[in-house]
Amino acid sequence: MTRFRLSAFALSLLVLVVAVGLFAAGAPAQGKKPYEGTTIRAIVNAEYVKYSLSLVEKDLLDKLGIKIETEVIPIDAFVAKTLLEFNSGKSPWDLVMFGPSNMPDYGRHFEPLEQWISKLKLDFQMDDIPDVYKKLMLRHQGKIVSMPYDGDIHIMFWNKVAFERPDNKKKFKAKHGYDLAAPKTWKQWDDQAAFFHGWGWDGTDRKLFGAGASYKPSGSGYSYHWWRARFFSYGGQYFDADMKPLINGPAAVRALEEIVKTMPYYPPGVLLFESEEPKTMLIKGEVPMLYSWTSTGKRVGNPAESLIIGKAGFGLVPGAEIDGKIVNRPSLTPGRAMAVSIYSQKKEATMKVLEFISNPDQSLKIVMDAKTIMDPWRNSHFKATAFRKAFPGADEYLDAILKSFPYVVPDPIIPGANEYQRKLSFEITEALAGRKPVKAALDTAAAEWEKITDRRGRDKQKALWGEKMGEMKQVGIEYHPDWAQKAK
Asked: CA 289, CA 278: separation in Å to the nearest integer?
């Protein structure tokens, strides 16, 4: 009996010694966070994107023990600076935000996810991602290399007060011969912008504006995004099958000429507006209508700043009436995705971070917050009860996004996409400012596109564009040179 007790005591002592030894050697104690003490570096293109990551930092630290240090490179310089770093064969960043429209330039610098999904048993819940984002934001040369972070498309927003006041309806009908309602065509949009401009359509004595827009050429190429919805609805296309630019053809010219004519009905300073200025004017009741990124809806419903809560409408961006049918072509803009740098020394931990910020609960937290400007991108985001009840009309807002998906047009997702976009946007704004005639501006843009194509390798660009043109054709987006004449 004594011998047993001594053996038990000795055994207990041995266990204690071993445990202490293991602890001293760095083995994780029971309950220790798996990546305790790990810090990863992220790169993003705006302070509000940095803020969005802050919403998940505490949970990430509590559950995995990982800290995020986030660096911001402003949007105007982001693509050039990050690609310069990557093309040198190195990177100080682990987690990389990028615009998926630029995937052909970024993709080779990202770590493929499949092997890590298998190795770490990661679950990115791919079935919860709408096809429109799954196709655009995930793959490079057939491999999954990133996850969506910000679903970007344009939808239309309007102030119901402007459209439902009896006096407004009466005046508009008398002037234009049809009923005042949220515009379905570009002609209706332009009629209404002219009608609403310069008086108190809200019943006050204020001098209000006809519509909102973002026409600054730099950064995300705002004027390009606002022009191309008209361009494509009039039958436009970026290139023909031989890589000849079509951005100075009949559809392009008509779209830009119309926008130039409406310039007097927009707020002063519109040529300098990025995304947030017209949103602010909408929620303050200063413009009656705006088509813009879907994050606008969260500002519309934010009681801390919006004066039109419960007074807003949400729907499709206008289109062109072709042979009795309205053709809508809202912009599917670059968006944001997240990827793991192939040069990272902390790939495993960064993969866990990517999984964490992408999961339905954490990503919902990000896209619901009005200050993030991140847009919903999971099917579950659109169904979430909390989101659908977040503000009056939130359900209509989310439904408007879903209804727009079948009609969206992506950027030209080929190498140099950012270069093509910036050159075109600059020339569009030159025409809007009255510094160049419309056709001359678009001819200059087309010539610049030819230079980019030659510099990038015409045969290579032609082959890649052929794939993208084929994909667009499958969803009904083709070049129709006759539409510019027949569109109503």
From this structure: 10
DSSP string, 64-91: H-EEEEEEE--HHHHHHHHHHHHHTT--
∠318-417-329 over CA atoms, to 5°? 15
Q: What is the pLDDT of residues 256-311, one digit of tens each?
A: 999 999 999 999 999 999 999 999 999 999 999 999 999 999 999 999 999 999 99
**Two structure tokens written together for 100:** 């998926």
Could you tell me if residue 203 is left (phi over 0), alpha (psi between -120 and 50 degrees) or otherwise beta? left
> Hey, do 38-151+334-395 and 154-332+408-486 end up sharing a CATH topology, with the first three levels equal?
yes
Sorted by sequence, the CB contacts under 8 Å of residue 337 that are 6+ apart come out as 97, 98, 99, 100, 137, 138, 146, 147, 148, 149, 150
| CB-based burial label for 131 (10 Å; 0-12, 13-18, 19+) | exposed
Per the document, the length of the chain is: 488
CATH 3.40.190.10: does it fit domain 154-332+408-486? yes
**Contact 107/140 with Cβ under 8 angstroms?**
yes
Q: What is the CA radius of gyration of the chain?
A: 26
d(CA 129, CA 147): 10
CB atoms within 10 A of CB 248: 22
**Model pTM score:** 0.90
Question: Could you tell me the CA-to-CA distances from 234 to 256, 320, 425, 426, 477 in Å, in that order?
Answer: 11, 6, 18, 21, 11
Residue 246, classed as helix, strand or coil, is coil
Q: Residue 57: CA atoms inside 13 Å, Cβ hemisphere, count? A: 15
Beta strands in 234-329 (DSSP E): 289-293, 312-315, 319-322, 325-328
CATH of span 38-151+334-395: 3.40.190.10
- What are the boundaries of each domain within the chain? 38-151+334-395, 154-332+408-486
Secondary structure of residue 409 in the 3-state scheme: strand
CA distance 299 to 301: 5
